[in-house]
Amino acid sequence: MKRRRGVVLTHAGLKRLQAAIAAVEIAENNGERFTLEELGDRIRVSTKTLSRLWSLNSGLDRRTLHLCFTSFNLDLQPGDYVVVDDLAEPETPVNAVNAVNEPNRLSASPLPSTETRQVPQPAPSSPSSAVAPAPLPSGALPYPDGPVPLDSPFYIDRPPIEALAYQEISQPGCVVRIRAPRGMGKTSLTLRLLTVAEAQGYRTVTLDCNEFDSVLLDDLNKFLRSFCLRLAQALHIPPNLEDYWDEEIGSKLSCSFYLKTYLLKQIDAPVVLVLNEIDRFFEHTTFAQDFFPLLRSWYEESRRDLALQKLRLVVVYSTEEYVALDINQSPFNIGLPLRLPEFTAEQVLDLAQRHGLPWSMSEVEQLIDLIGGHPALVRMALYHVCIYGLSLSQLVQGAIATGGIFRPHLWRHWVTIQQHPDLLAALRTVALAECGQSVLLDPLQAYRLESRGLLRYEGDSRNDPCGNRVLSRCRLYHQYFRQQFMSESPLL
């Protein structure tokens, strides 16, 4: 087929387009993400073309890219794309000329007229029949470590999680609680939530609780002063702490007074405050019993305080297993709770196709049988299949035998659980049972292990009305931990 010079989105261009789409989803679609088919209808291109667009490695004609941008009231800028020598005969949007004349869908800026138009093929009707994107070269596929970048085509929505988060953040004085074990996508979701908030003109601040010095957690007054100082710096406001801090009324009241009467009154827009990895505070019991009720007090007071209504709090954590709080003082039973689930089979198939893999549901089911729908493990598996050419059977065999490509992930769990003898004993009970056989554990131990992502509840109410029967989260975990317990030395 004749090859032509085409264009590919840059990361900056993809980020601009994604932000514009998110803003339209909020304004016109109640915050719900457009499906690929809905985007295709809006832009008037096929889903095949959109898959090539998101892949960042398959060239499109410039007319099509221009149409994608103008559909969301963006001007295509030189920094949004690069020219490549990788373009088949272009697939031109359906009725592109007519679309340009519809002001309610596109801007009126003229399209370049140098490309040849061609009617696209019909869009696929289901994920299983979708045309897979072209395989990605190794340089275009980053190692799947950490959150999914904003400009990555590999972020998978888990409806209605995203829509609920985007809608809730617009509520005055709200609290959004994002809870899930490590590797389930908490930070990836938070990044997108912040992008949506910024698109609405909100100010945003993210505090990583792991960055606070341990010495601060032994002195509430020092911590709260540091907390307020970091807020002011992030918002580019002179701290002026001494003008609002009164030792006689105490640090908690001083902190609240500073927040309400100074920081929030300096800003006309809502402020989204993200407290990431707040688990770090749970092991400091005295500190937690002072700080967490303070967070709840801001939420409750926002019902009558206009300044505090500007504050939108996002709390990100894995488990509240270490802290015992009065139910009326805890911030972990207020606001919108979002518990991130595993990927469904359809979502795993979608992600595989975005990696350029011609998988069917059969391959997806084999992978899910091994690792469930754990997002980080699924991404790791797809990366190794794409980059190293592993077959699915090789990946499964290696994982079952020794942990395979998942060994660092498994070893981290194993080392961490050694620090908790009671949980280690409970995990032993589960691992030494037959694979797929549930066991009855102490409710607190079951909850703590489930919060770490090691177990799942059986959920059979007929045999277990209290819901305390559990089994290994996936076959990989069961096999690995069973081998560890059966081969451990008497000294362990």
In short:
The chain has helices at residues 11-28, 36-43, 47-55, 62-70, 96-100, 161-168, 186-199, 220-234, 251-263, 285-301, 345-354, 361-371, 375-388, 392-402, 407-417, 421-431, 443-451, 475-487; strands spanning 4-9, 81-87, 175-179, 203-208, 271-276, 311-317, 336-339, 439-440, 455-457, 469-472. With 492 residues, the protein is an alpha/beta fold.
Mean pLDDT: 84
> Ends: how far apart?
64 Å
Shape: flat
CATH homologous superfamily title of the largest domain: P-loop containing nucleotide triphosphate hydrolases
Count of DSSP helices? Answer: 18
If strands are numbered along the chain, what order do they take across the biggest sheet? 4-5-6-3-7
Explained architecture:
There is one protein chain. Helix 8 packs parallel to helix 9 (251-263), helix 11 (345-354) packs across helix 12 and helix 12 packs parallel to helix 14. Helix 10 (285-301) links the parallel strand 5 and strand 6 (311-317). Helix content is 42%, strand content 10%. It has 492 residues and is α/β, with parallel strands linked by helices. It contains 18 helices and 10 strands. The chain is flat, with a radius of gyration of 26 Å. The protein has a 5-stranded parallel β-sheet, sandwiched between helices. A 3-stranded antiparallel β-sheet has the order 8-10-9. A two-stranded antiparallel sheet has the order 1-2. Mean pLDDT is 84; it is low at 88-138 and 461-465. The protein has 3 domains: 4-107, no CATH class; 161-339, 3-Layer(aba) Sandwich (Rossmann fold); 410-487.
